[in-house]
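Friendly challenge for the regulars: who can give me the structure tokens for this chain first? No prize, just bragging rights.
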Amino acid sequence: MGLANGVHHLAICTGDIKKQIEFFTDVLGAELAALYWMHGVDGTFHGFLRFGDTCSVAFVQNDKVKEIDPQVGISHAANTRAPSAPGTMQHVAFNVDDEAALLKLRDRVRSRGVNIIGPIDHGFCKSIYFAGPEGLNLEISTSAEPIDERAWIDPEVVALAGIDAEELERFKKPAAYTNDTGEAVPQPPIDPAKPHFIFPRAEYEKMMTMPDDELTALRSQPDPPVKVAV
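First reply, four minutes later:
Bragging rights claimed.
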């Protein structure tokens, strides 16, 4: 397994954070856990809707977001079967523990007047589908057991993806990572062939060459916005 063990939060831009909070709390039962100015980003605030102690969906709002016109097929897909631009979110699926919880949540969504598709049995999971505000494509899924890759990795699709036999084995069983030196791995040189954020070049180069502890001290803001009495 990889070192990450789940999705901590998914951040989505919004032009109306109140509408998103209303939908996710009322329709899905998520709890508003945080709503504050985004650290290090002028004029931007975000809210976290909690599904569990380590899983949330976050919405990010500023005046610039409101000026961007959504375009179906570019900024987002029309539905869970439709395409959108590379690198954009086609849809997001949230997890429930079992089919009984899936059906209970289906009924909750419908009770709020939201149309829903499903449940649909995909073999390795069962899912329901519905739309959220601002063109979100949403899914709720449950899996009775882990995916058996022997049954669900299709050789035809493997070939269409340009994956050879050696690569397939590597993808199925990624190499473990070990660091026996006891020291942090230094920041690598900026390689244009690797993925990168789009920052002003001088700012990005400064961040990528700054010692980790210095960057951590510069960017960190660990104190919450509201002081809570003990």
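The beta strands are 9-13, 31-37, 45-52, 55-61, 92-95, 117-121, 126-132, 136-142. Residues 207 and 215 are 7 Å apart (CA to CA). Your move, everyone else.
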